[in-house]
Specification:
Blueprint: H1 2-92, H2 98-177
Helix pairs in contact: 1-2
């Protein structure tokens, strides 16, 4: 009778211990799932922010390029308008100053070519600068994204290892507390 009493108490104790371990494992699993969900949400939020920033930078670059093209066009149009006025003035005075006109035409043509070359150089320089800035910013954002993604992966791996370690500890504790066949 004592043995059956002892066996029933031991069975009861083992059952309580098993239930407690199962609750603890379930709690750890829930905690891990919650942390993993938070990491995924955080990663998605960061992705959204980077996408929004990238879109914003692209829009800025497009605006700057349009502004630059507009200013170059306006300057070119104003130069052309000026040259057309000047040409008309020269045509009116052509009959009186033919020799002077030839000299003036040469000077204006040279100046126009020089000005157009300067404008082309300025535009090309601005475009190159804008592209370089854009590429640098893009590389910076990509590097930040890669670093954060790597950090999140390391954090996830660390949490996974902690979880597996706790499960092993619980299993070892469970094995130690189980009755042996010699007892």
């Amino acid at each position: 009778k004592l043995t059956s009493n002892w066996v029933s108490k031991e069975n009861s104790w083992n059952q309580q211990k098993t239930e407690m371990i199962e609750r603890e494992v379930a709690g750890l699993r829930n905690e891990f799932a919650q942390k993993q969900g938070e990491l995924i949400a955080k990663s998605q939020e960061q992705e959204k922010q980077w996408t929004a920033r990238k879109t914003e930078l692209e829009a800025q670059a497009e605006r700057k390029q349009r502004d630059l093209e507009t200013s170059v066009t306006q300057e070119r149009d104003s130069i052309r308008a000026y040259l057309e006025r000047r040409s008309k003035e020269l045509e009116d005075s052509y009959r009186e100053k033919f020799a002077t006109l030839e000299q003036e035409k040469s000077r204006v043509s040279a100046w126009l070519l020089q000005k157009e070359e300067e404008l082309v150089e300025q535009y090309q320089k601005r475009e190159t600068d804008m592209r370089n800035q854009w590429n640098l910013k893009k590389m910076e954002v990509t590097q930040q994204f890669d670093e954060k993604l790597k950090r999140l992966a390391e954090e996830r791996q660390s949490l996974q290892k902690d979880f597996e370690q706790k499960v092993r500890e619980l299993e070892l504790r469970n094995r130690k507390d189980l009755p042996r066949s010699n007892d």
